[in-house]
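Appendix C: a fully annotated inverse folding record. The material below is reproduced so that readers can follow the format used throughout the book. The structure is listed first as tokens, followed by the designed sequence.
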């Protein structure tokens, strides 16, 4: 069976290649890895260049099966010139299942460290940033696109390319308009936090950015809240004097305090650190919110004085602050 599949792929006959690609996807992982040593990647990539959606679909399925779980095959596929072909599919394909498969394939290929620089040297980053903001893409395709950008941005030298392509703005738009408890919001917030850890100034000029993040802290899933707090912490650490007033004016306190009580472990730690950075800031807050800031500062003083001395005091005082700041 394996020999027949290889012969059909190498034959050049398109119908035989389609049948062989389908058969390849149904073989065991061990069989596929053995066959990958027989120059079958090249004919599968040639099938990607077809204008026929079915041919593209079966070749993508076969290539995905070869790449899954094999770092060696991931490198081979990229070295064989797959990325420009995948870029072409993303720009021209109208069948959404093929677009989704292409996004999934890029995600798998970008997970290999040896591929990241080569992938980033193409136009892929700019294209993905544009695509993730388009309504025509499915949620899963957007999730995979963001995850691919995240994979690439784990290399420090690639982060400036991601920023220059407009990713911070695109990610904020996604967080703003999608369900903040969704996987899409989580992925977008995670990538944005990674970007901010390298370049905290990258969202400073984006109008409404702080407000979007405050809403994510209030409405997001546990992990979305965690990433949003991490972003605000990074921004505040970068330029406390400028940014803490902006953060407070967006009404961050109730959500931030709630996270400090019932967020993930990492979110709790970051929320408490951010609370400390936001202290002593009445001079930065508009007049009609002055009373709430005074409440905050008074209860923070109480926490400092009694929180460590009396068991349960910190939780009680934080709950009191949330109640007062929410009214």
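Designed amino acids, in order:
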């Amino acid at each position: 069976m394996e020999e027949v599949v290889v012969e059909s792929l190498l034959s050049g006959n398109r119908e035989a290649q389609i049948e062989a690609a389908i058969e390849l996807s149904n073989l065991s992982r061990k069989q596929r890895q053995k066959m990958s040593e027989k120059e079958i990647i090249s004919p599968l990539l040639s099938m990607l260049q077809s204008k026929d959606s079915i041919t593209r679909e079966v070749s993508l399925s076969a290539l995905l099966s070869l790449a899954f779980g094999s770092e060696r095959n991931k490198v081979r596929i990229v070295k064989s010139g797959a990325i420009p072909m995948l870029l072409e599919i993303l720009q021209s394909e109208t069948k959404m299942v093929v677009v989704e498969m292409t996004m999934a394939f890029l995600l798998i290929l970008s997970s290999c460290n040896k591929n990241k620089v080569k992938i980033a040297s193409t136009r892929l980053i700019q294209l993905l940033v544009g695509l993730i903001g388009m309504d025509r893409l499915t949620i899963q395709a957007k999730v995979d696109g963001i995850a691919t950008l995240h994979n690439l941005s784990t290399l420090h030298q690639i982060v400036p390319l991601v920023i220059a392509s407009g990713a911070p703005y695109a990610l904020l738009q996604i967080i703003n308009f999608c369900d903040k408890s969704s996987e899409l919001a989580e992925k977008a917030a995670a990538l944005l936090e990674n970007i901010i850890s390298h370049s905290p100034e990258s969202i400073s000029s984006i109008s409404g950015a702080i407000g979007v993040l405050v809403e994510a802290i209030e409405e997001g899933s546990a992990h979305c809240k965690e990433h949003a707090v991490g972003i605000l912490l990074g921004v505040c650490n970068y330029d406390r004097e400028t940014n803490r007033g902006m953060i407070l004016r967006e009404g961050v306190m109730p959500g931030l305090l709630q996270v400090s009580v019932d967020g993930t472990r990492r979110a709790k730690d970051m929320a408490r650190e951010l609370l400390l950075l936001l202290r002593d800031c009445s001079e930065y807050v508009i007049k009609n919110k002055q009373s709430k800031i005074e409440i905050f500062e008074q209860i923070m003083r109480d926490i400092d004085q009694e929180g460590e001395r009396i068991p349960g005091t910190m939780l009680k005082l934080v709950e009191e602050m949330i109640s007062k700041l929410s009214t």
